[in-house]
Amino acid sequence: MGIVRGILDRIILLAAILLASCVPSFIAQYRQRLGGRLDQVRADLAPFQAIADRNFGGSLSKLIDHHIASPDTTFHQEGVAIQAMADALVRLQDAIQALNTDLVHQCLYLVNHPDYDLLRSTWGIYQPGFTLTLQGAVFALAIGLVVWLLFLGLWHGTAAAVRARGRTPRNPGPPRRSEGRHPREQRRRDPFFE
To answer: If we measure between CA atoms, which residue out of 54, 83, 53, 86 comes closest to residue 67?
Structure first.
């Protein structure tokens, strides 16, 4: 069983390191898609910003308020659409800013603020790659070591539980009676009680 565990734990360590070393390239591709969406929102808002520059002193929020306050439903709906684009612009800028940090904080940001649509679309075209940086190598080794230690803990914990279960008697059955006497009768005849 030791040979199986030895081979299995090395396979798990190697697989964890290889998978963790692909994380930086996934995040880089995610950031590229995020940047593309940000550029698209900026391009879509540019004509409205030009109108705001001419008529509202450059304030896009005043243009949006003017649209939303209009009794014309079409004009009002345009205001809602412009507001949605402006909100997307702020959200995408915040995401880009949050991802301009080290690899660990990028991973934590993606876990705590997932954009499932963007994650799915990035995963759909993801091309695995290895980023050869010191930060990427340390990250991969650290994640690999954590996964490997978890595996060893589970392996040894399960083995200890199985060994402990094997030591306990399953069903001892009723107590034995010697010579057909009742236990109280045996106690009375025991020299210790006499």
So the answer is: 83
**Distance in angstroms (rounded) separating the CA atoms of residues 7 and 87:** 52
Query: Is the CB of residue 29 less than 8 Å from the CB of residue 144?
Result: no
3-class SS shares of the chain: helix, strand, coil, % to 5 = 80, 0, 20
Please count the other Cβ atoms lying within 10 Å of the Cβ belonging to residue 23.
18
- Name the CA dihedral angle for 149, 152, 156, 158, rounded to a multiple of 10 degrees: 100
Q: List alpha helices for 125-182, DSSP H.
A: 134-167
- CA nearest to 124, candidates 16, 30, 53: 30
- pTM value is 0.66
Report whether pLDDT(23) > 80.
yes
**Predicted pLDDT of residue 21:** 86
- Is the confidence at residue 95, as pLDDT, over 60? yes
Q: How confident is the model at residue 86 (pLDDT cuts 50, 70, 90)?
A: very high
